[in-house]
Amino acid sequence: METKEPKIKTLGELKKSGYKPRGIKDELRENLVTKLKNKEETFAGIFGYETSVIPELERAILSRHNINLLGLRGQAKTRLARLMVNLLDEWMPIVAGSEINDDPFAPLSYFAKELVEKQKDNTPISWVHRDERFAEKLATPDVTIADLIGDVDPIKAANLKLSYADERVIHFGMIPRANRCIFVINELPDLQARIQVGLFNILQEGDLQIRGFKLRFPLDIQFVFTANPEDYTNRGSIVTPLKDRIGSQILTHYPETIEIARKITAQEVRSNEGTNKSISIPVLAKDLIEQIGFEARKSEYVDIKSGISARMSISAYENLVSAAELRMLKQNKKQTSVRLGDFIGIIPALTGKMEIAYEGEQEGARFVAEYLIQMAVKSIFESIFPKVLKLEKQGVKGPYHDIIAWFDNLDDEFELTENMSDEEYKKQLDKIVPLDELIDKYQGGVETDERYFLKEIVLWGLAENKKLSRVLINEGISFGNNYNDLLKDLNK
Predict the structure, then answer these.
(1) Model pLDDT for residues 105-121, shown as the tens digit of each residue
(2) Residue 135 backbone dihedrals phi, psi, to 5 degrees
């Protein structure tokens, strides 16, 4: 529960209150210790890191280390850094008007030193909330020393009639302005090597070197860097001396199970209350969304070194719901359920989130996206239904025999189109009576919407195992018997 800003307004009042200043690393450490003793969650909303990344991050904070979070894109590196703000004191006193959050008990800037010296206990105090004690910079090749550390300001020198030898002509960069704060540099390898070198003294000795000025300026900053593994990128690397000055390097990773991935997606998706009530989303559909990401991370068509962000699953989930919503709106219905055929609608969310490998480029991004959906369906199918045998023993009917036989006796194609109403869609699937028998035997007790999604899973699964044919048509999907389709092709 947040408290109101303290009413203390002068240095004298601050002294009487018993306030004791402490460095930001000590502040983070001591507040973390308190949370751990009280069995409080330290990094809320982060799933899958409970036994890996979070304990390592906690150890780094307890050790008062600057931190480098190393991992592929979409692994919550920046989010972890932002959540560290919750380990800060809620309010921090500074010398009022200070550019660099000067500690009233140990001011650094010329402005604050002069003010404290003149006004002593009457020095005005202002308060900074912990949410404002976070600064972030994306490292790009055009970032300069002036951006990060500072530069001489000729306009200030002219207006104040100061010599360039006077430290008051300095315009502070982002890092000094983040004094007593958490400062994050994202994608550190993208920072030019000469700029990285400029960080050495700040991390180790606390010196600021700006245009000939060498100021003893012991900045109090908790640095957090994020980076992709060096050997995964040609853009640059972290220079060795800088790496040596970073206390802890923590490796992040992707979710290890479907359940964890589903939690992350559910937390991040954008939805509205009306959509949540009107569109039913089978649990298997949510699992399938995550399985696509797992398939992509091991596919030969995808450059696994670039990573597959959790944002792909989030965008795909949103597109999937929108595909069902679009059908519902066109048919002027008030409710619907996600179908397996709706997954064709998530392809735009997949193609923009993957770096295609050479093999994938030969086939095209859309082919790769469709392939990943098919492989994900096959994986889900094989996890909940018996294995499809290439050849059945003579005289022994396999679990899918009657379904395949039903398609053998089919005179025409079996189509599931996008413009089918829910009633027509269910009526069409109900024609395949052996499907119900299979589901009752292996997945009995499932709810109605889940049941029809399962029926489509079976058809797709049999198609992926070459027992049925599956063809994308203009308005949906057509299933048929492989042998009959082959004869049709020969007779063309």
Answers:
(1) 999 888 899 999 999 99
(2) -125, 145
